[in-house]
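**Polypeptide and fold**
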Amino acid sequence: MENIVKQKACRQCGNQFPVTDVENAFYKKMAIPSPTLCPHCREQRRLVWRNERHLYYRNSDLSGKPIISTYAPHKPYKVYSPTEWWSDSWNALDYGRDFDFSRSFFEQFDELLKTVPQIGILNSNNQNAEYDNFSEQDKNCYLVFAANRNEDCYYSSYIWDSKNCVDNLNIEKCELCYECVDCFKCYNACYSERCRESHDITHCFDLSLCENCFACAGMRGKKFHILNKPFDKNEYQRITKDPLAIQKILQDYEGLKLKTPRLFANLINCENSTGSNLRNCRNVKNCFDAFDMEDCHYVENGPGEVKDVYDMSGGTHDELGCELVSIAYGYNLFSCLYSHNQLTNAYYCIACPGCQNCFGCVGLKNQKYCIFNKQYSEEEFSRLASKIIEHMKRAGEWGEFFPAWISPYAYNESISQERYPLTKEEALRKDFRWLDESERGSSIHAQSAADNITIFACSTCNKNFKIIEPEQSFYKKMNLPLPKNCPECRHRKRFAMRNPCRLYSRPCSNCQKPIQSTYSPDRPEIVYCESCYLKEVY
């Protein structure tokens, strides 16, 4: 059990937040001070660096050819295509510079970031999936974000190991799924939430090991059910093909969902852990959408093998790190971003795969003992890094993540706007930047990116969107109507269906036991502790 050793006031929002003895021990091990921002403000600051969904056409600053980029055309950065960035045609050491002790670290880092070429879009080992971002090993995919090892998937985010899926959010090992949220190992599922190992289901909520169910909630091991009532196969098929019956059923379904008790948090095979959508986790606190983690705090989107990491937004196979964004196979890192290949012993580094013992570097590949992209001997590196840390301490910079004003992305380009929505005026008051629609330039949604497409106007925002040929084939195969809304409006609707990555103290709706849940106390849903929930569904 963790004990609170101090309460601190967040430097940004003013709210009090605790620092525990376990957290203090972690910060001492990392040789960094305890945070000055509360966990939510820290996450908000990190997520300004994750532009997942806003892609643009611009020209490569190396070849001049058109490329896909997360950097709007007017942004003051050198941008290369992934192939160009990974090539040997340039060397990030050529941009090395001395550290100026008369100026702040972050001011100088901002200048370095604007000089060293940036990778246009973060994907690797993809095949026919050049419009995927924050992705690896995707094949035949289009506009899939924060996803790995998928095939023939479209318009989805946070999906893993899935095939032939369209318009989904946070699914894993699924096939032929449409408009599903938080589903695992489902097949031929549509408009369903929080379902596991089920197939041939439509408009279902919290099913496990079920098949041929329509508009059902909170069931286990059932088949041929409608509104949680059993039917023989022939009657089930007749009803689910009757449009008038379906309309009435869906009206009743919303009431059924609201009356169905919900588990306070989705924790599967977890020990001493808090958060939600966790699997196989041990000793994790306030973590979300992750599996196979141990001894971690304040991590979201951690799909596998993460240990001893605090404050991370996107990462896998990492150990000992703090304030990270999109890091894979990293060890002993602080304030590092966008490195998916063996970054070790690094502080304040961006996109430095395969590097070791680096401080304040950008775009290096397989280098050692570098500061501001300039290489030193091991002894010189240690001496200079220590001096810079002391300089940063005097300026109040040491231990802080990169400030938002350095990020290449405006607040409303980043997923901070999804998690912590602000108006333009609110964002500017908090020293975030804002990108007006007139400044966006050539967004990919405004141009045709594929042959054999159909253009529609979104019924919500009235913007044009396209339906590509593989997408049309999917709708025909699944007997689904064409969507009436653009991909962004569809995504926003799915995102609104999920609970926030935040815990609230509330009592169990049945036994009144205190619980930490993603359902706030003022919400209308019936929320049970684990014991009461298991008695209800089994």
